[in-house]
Structures are given as structure tokens and as C-alpha cells.
Design goal:
0% strand, 2 domains, globular, 13 helices, 381 residues, mainly alpha, Growth Hormone, Chain: A
């Protein structure tokens, strides 16, 4: 809710240019790229609840900082600080769930992911409603009201983190300090595990394509004369398809070979991405977009649970953190790479680039993961 739709409107109300808006928008994902892996290492060593408490504290403090902003450039450090919370929360919460539910990790990760998607779907609606309700105040006050709402919502979230069982999902008591050697050892283990690296490349390609779709599908549909309300409906149905199906595909991942599910998902994603610019019908594009969402659901719910199979229990946090960092690289680089291609060629060429990345990931995953032993690690399902 602190990002969409309030952030660009808030920055614009501070008389910032579009370039500054783009710069500020890029800061938060950068925190995920930089911190997800180190945070995973810390979670393995210091305990996952400690890191979740840090994330909750950032989520509680960051909205208050927005209220102090008078210059748009102040938002750069604030957005980076706020991004740290997401960089911690996503990989550490996933690792916590993997440890807490070893027999049904796919299903539980699916539920967690669906809850996240529900929040991401409702947040812009609530944020937009708050702006509308307080629009009569004028100036920047309607936007600051959104950050007050974000603070109020963070309070119960922080309380719930306090109530978490410290022992549940923990790999065991770790040392009270972490040295640089621990980070380098974790990075070496991550890069040296071919199955883990191959799975991470699938995640990267998935979000590379997803970043292209969420950025350029509105432009493609707008060029076809589709009204904004119908474009919004396309994305709503896509997110809904992911949220509703992830628990079911998570249960499936607990019962089948997760490698096959990952491969099926990324293959379907490649096909759906390539098909989007081949149709000028809003009905067909909507159906393909829903298939795209189903493919994301099939693949991503299996990647995180598969990671738990190929690493030691005490390395789950670092592994999920590395997975998140590579995912963020794909998510942030997709729109940029596609933008260069679209500028030079056309919008369809940008979508084909996303499909090509998925095809490349299929080849790398097949070579690095299928038919190989787990690099000296034997992890029970």
C-alpha cells in the first residue's frame, strides 16, 4: 500500500520529474537484490524469528518516515530502508515455513504466497480509496494519510510476529555472531550447488517474463484500443488465478517430483509469453494472461519447496535468500531489457525476449538439475 498507487502520485505532488519518480521506484527492489542472500545466512545463524522481528520493526517505522518528507530525494533512503523489510520478510518467512511444515511444505508455501497476493491485490484498492476520501484536504495530505494507514496495519502484523514460536521452523540454536567468512561460505555453497543454481535460474526467468508482462501488456492493450478498466480486469483475473491455485499446486508439489512440476511450469510460461502479442482479441489475451498466471503458480510454488530437498537444513535460509536475490534481478532487469528491445524493434519483440529467457532456463534447468545427484546433500522430502 506504501507503493501503489500512492508513491508516484506522492512524488509527483512534490514537483519531481518522471526521471526522479523512476529512480525512487527502483530503489526498493535494489534492497532485495542486495540483502536477501545475506539475510538468509543471518536467519540460519541467528534464528528466523529474530530476523522477522527486524522486518516487522522496519514495516512499523518506515511509514512514519514518509510523513516527514518535504523533498522528493528524501524518499530515496526511505524507500531503501522500507525495501529492507521485504528483503527480510519474503525469504525468511519462506524458510520458517519450510522448517515448520516439512511434510507439507509445498501446500503451506502456496498458502503463504496466496495470502501475499491477496494483500498485494487489496492494497492498491485500499490506498486509492484513502487518497479519494482525503482528497478534499488538498496538497500532499491525502498521500500522507495512506502512510498513516500503512502504519496502523503494521501494528497487528508486528504483534503477530511477536507471538510466533521461536523454536518452530528453526534449524537449531546458532552462534550469536556472524563473520564475513560465514557469508562467503554460504555464497560458495550456493553457487556450488548445481541443482540450487539451476532452480534459481528458472525463478529468474519466470520473473524476467513477469516483469515484462506487467510493464508492457498495458501498453500493448492500450495500442489495441482496450479501455483502462478492461486492462485492469485482465490483471485482476491473472492475479486471482495465481492466488486461487497456488495452494492446490503446492499440494501437488508435495506428491510429485518437484523437478517435473518446475519444468512444466516454465514451459507453459514460455508458451504463454510468446502467445500474448500474437492476438489482437481482448478475450484471447485475457485467457492467455490467465494461463500465464497459472504457469507462474505451477512453477514458483515448486521451486522454493524443491530447494529444501537439495540443501542441508541449516542452509535453508541462505538458499531461499539467494533464490530471492536472483528472482529480484530477473524481475527488475526484465522491463529494462524488454524496453531496449521494444524501442529498437517492437512490443511483440519484447514479449518474445521473455519467452526466449524461459526457453533458455528450460535448457539450463534440464542440464543442471534433471538426472543429477544433489551435490553431496541428501535431504528428505
Amino acid at each position: 500500500m506504501s507503493k501503489s498507487p500512492v508513491l508516484p502520485l506522492f512524488v509527483k505532488s512534490l514537483s519531481a520529474s518522471e526521471t526522479v519518480i523512476g529512480l525512487i521506484a527502483a530503489i526498493s527492489p535494489l534492497a532485495g537484490v542486495l540483502f536477501s542472500f545475506p539475510v538468509g545466512v543471518l536467519a540460519d545463524r541467528l534464528g528466523k524469528k529474530r530476523l522477522l522481528l527486524v522486518s516487522g520493526a522496519v514495516l512499523l517505522a518506515a511509514p512514519v518516515l514518509y510523513l516527514l518528507v518535504r523533498n522528493p530525494f528524501w524518499l530515496i533512503p526511505i524507500r531503501f530502508f522500507h525495501g529492507i523489510a521485504t528483503a527480510i520478510l519474503s525469504p525468511v518467512a519462506s524458510a520458517y515455513i519450510l522448517g515448520a511444515y516439512p511434510q507439507s511444505k509445498g501446500e503451506k508455501l502456496g498458502l503463504f504466497s496466496s495470502a501475499t497476493l491477496v494483500g498485494r491485490t487489496l492494497a492498491p484498492l485500499l490506498g486509492g480509496a484513502i487518497i479519494t476520501w482525503f482528497l478534499y484536504l488538498g496538497g500532499t495530505l491525502p498521500y500522507r494519510a495512506v502512510y498513516v494507514g500503512a502504519f496502523l496495519l503494521a501494528v497487528p502484523a508486528f504483534v503477530l510476529i511477536l507471538m510466533l514460536d521461536r523454536g518452530t521452523g528453526e534449524a537449531g540454536p546458532g552462534p550469536d555472531r556472524v563473520t564475513p567468512r560465514d557469508f562467503f561460505r554460504g555464497l560458495r555453497d550456493f553457487l556450488g550447488n548445481r541443482r540450487l543454481l539451476g532452480t534459481s535460474l528458472v525463478e529468474m526467468a519466470t520473473y524476467f517474463a513477469y516483469g515484462i508482462l506487467e510493464t508492457y501488456l498495458p501498453l500493448y492493450l492500450s495500442g489495441l484500443g482496450v479501455p483502462p478498466i478492461e486492462i485492469g480486469l485482465v490483471f485482476f483475473l491473472q492475479v486471482l488465478s495465481i492466488a486461487l491455485t497456488k495452494p492446490a499446486f503446492g499440494r501437488l508439489a508435495d506428491r510429485v517430483d518437484r523437478r517435473i512440476q518446475v519444468l512444466a511450469g516454465i514451459t507453459l510460461l514460455a508458451a504463454a509469453t510468446a502467445m500474448i502479442p500474437l492476438s489482437a482479441s481482448i478475450i484471447v489475451v485475457t485467457l492467455v494472461s490467465v494461463v500465464f498466471g497459472l504457469a507462474v503458480s505451477v512453477s514458483t510454488v515448486a521451486t522454493s519447496s524443491y530447494v529444501a530437498e537439495v540443501v542441508k537444513k541449516e542452509q535453508i535460509g541462505a538458499s531461499i535468500g539467494g533464490l530471492s536475490s536472483i528472482m529480484d534481478i530477473g524481475h527488475s532487469s526484465g522491463p529494462f531489457v524488454a524496453g531496449v528491445i521494444i524501442t529498437a524493434v517492437s512490443i511483440p519483440a519484447g514479449f518474445f525476449a521473455g519467452a526466449a529467457a524461459c526457453v533458455l532456463a528450460i535448457g539450463l534447468f534440464s542440464a543442471m538439475v534433471l538426472g543429477r545427484r544433489a551435490d553431496g546433500v541428501t535431504a528428505a522430502r
